[in-house]
Amino acid sequence: GFSADIGGGEYNRPLSQPRLHSLYRVGQSEDLKRIGDALAQWRADKPQHAVIGITDSGGYVEPVAIELVEDQTLQLRAANRKRPVIRLLDWQTDLPDSLSVVLAPGSHFTLDGLLVTGRGIQVRGMTNEDNQPPQVQNGSAGVTIRHSTLVPGWSLKGDCTPHRPSEPSLELINTGACVTIEHSILGAVRISLDVVQEDPLPIYVSDSILDATDPERDVLCGPGSQLAHALLSIARCTVIGCICLHAMRLAEDSIFIGTIKVARRQIGCVRFSYVTPGSRTPRRYECQTDLVEQAVSGLANQERERLRVRPVFNSIRYGTPTYCQLALACADEIKRGAEDESEMGVFHDLYQPQREANLRTRLDEFTPAGMQAGIIFAS
Hints:
Layout: E1 22-26, H1 35-45, E2 49-54, E3 59-61, E4 65-67, E5 73-78, E6 85-87, E7 99-103, E8 108-112, E9 115-117, E10 121-125, E11 142-146, E12 149-150, E13 168-173, E14 178-182, E15 185-186, E16 188-192, E17 201-206, E18 209-211, E19 218-221, E20 228-235, E21 238-240, E22 242-252, E23 255-257, E24 260-262, E25 269-271, E26 274-275, E27 283-285, H2 290-294, H3 299-309, H4 332-335, H5 352-366
């Protein structure tokens, strides 16, 4: 019932895996009833490439801990047109209860088609024999999150307000893994990385929502609101919260509700996006509010234009049907501000401005003389 095919759901989505892989089916009608049973079998078999496929849309209340060895890959995914839920609880009083993943050089973990609530995901690099973080080269390991939801604020109250609004959905700790996020909904992302020994962590985000639950909270940063040692590429996304990171390689067709602070402004580009005033970014091209400010003179007029083009949403609360939908009252500079004149943000690929224009053309052709036809938008 959501506006688009993002965040996991019972819609068609592409599945891919290595040609040679071991498959472990989990579900009430399968031999393996729990994710933990499949992980135990996977650890015993030690395949190089494996897929744990959940075949139903049930709920799984259990701890999940994964440790990959060198050059090993694992997918934890839902079957096509299924949407299972992993609910993480307080299993251990003295240890974190996140869905934990430990990566070795050359390993890769994929989360596909699931909803994770109650806690977030914690990804760590494998420590050496002296219990010290390894020096892992960027790109040697990887994490992919696609068509999944990591509930912003961990879980919801009855009115859709988050239980833990300041807690991150994804923590990356001492790992050089390349992170890819596609067609997903996430809360905040925290990155803890040695800035002396490691290159910036590459992060690629597309067609997704990053939601810190409030524009004033940090959505992508280091611990304690410090600079995240990361290199970000982002396209067709809606971001709610402040970003503080090393560099931004590319940002396009996106909406940033919250300030951006980038340390290295001399590399990268932001194009066809809404950027909150007061942000420090790489060079910008065809962005708002820059365009409307350049078109008027005087501080009062510029401030009025900034307010006019600020994105207006039907809702910015996860759990509501109109989550992150642009409102009808939103300025055309945002609703038609992407490079191809579609809307900025996560619903870019719905091409709603083009669909509206096509419908109005047809209405003009077929409306009887003396009558008028209008369009009523469904939420």
